Prior knowledge:
Blueprint: H1 4-20, H2 24-31, H3 35-42, H4 50-60, H5 65-71
Helix pairs in contact: 2-3
Amino acid sequence: MANSNNxxxxxxxxxxxxxxxKSQKWLAEETGFSTVHVSAVINGRAKPSPExxxxxxxxxxxxIEPFIKIMFKVI
Length: 75
């Protein structure tokens, strides 16, 4: 089930994609996850797994720590 942390996390992923000029389809191809799953996470409809976050951060060439902080932020 999605929550506001998932939505915030999705927004952060979207910002990184925009910054490097890449699409959700590209991210799906780079991570090996389906475009449906990538879209669901980015739009806050699905909770990302640790593996998903790890692969996304590798693809985006960014540190995972800010994403972890968002996931575990107390509402």
